[in-house]
Amino acid sequence: MLIAGALEDLVYTCVDERYDLNHYRMKIEECGPILNSLCDRV
Asked: I need a labelling partner for 3 at 20 to 30 A (CA). Which of 10, 11, 17, 33 fits?
């Protein structure tokens, strides 16, 4: 469950409601590879 918690924290860090749509889209692009690499390790 520690890994799931860490992933959840990362998602909330990457996807922040305060960002406008363009910034949000940019953050998704930045965080996508990070999330994918984490998921590959699980």
From this structure: 17
